[in-house]
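Before anything else, study the sequence and fold tokens given here and see whether the fold suits the sequence. Record follows:
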Amino acid sequence: MKRLLADVNVVLDAVLERGPRSVAAGKLWMAAETRRVVALVPAHGVTTLFYLVAREKGAPVARRIVDSVVATFGIAAVDRAVIGRALALAWPDFEDAVCAAAAEAAGCEAIVTGDPKGFPGSSLPVLSPETAVALLEGGPPDRVAEAPGANARSRSRRGPGGTTSRGMSR
């Protein structure tokens, strides 16, 4: 797996350190940052990310995070053809259909999401963050080794402006 699309929920899990998936989401972020994988986010997801982070952490933090996202991840275009494909998929969740169509158009090999049920009948494999990380680490997809006491924050490094690699201040 060399090229994947990260759903916005995975990026949010990493930057806001939300829930149990934040560790795997943080590892996926680091794999993208160190260029072990080409990871993209859908273009429409950047505005969603900004809105949700600003609501929780404020606009200055949201700007830093969006800057970090666009420095780390590629952007999967959302144009007329992508919207047309998403409409043709006729999925219940249009935003997930747009993600899938953007991933197809960008030549991704998989979609990484915390909501696999949102991608019914996807033409691409749909992976949890844990499975994606296990595959990137060369392990079996059902197991992700985690060092005792490790967490996403302790693995991230300082970035520009005194932030971690995911744009968050310490």
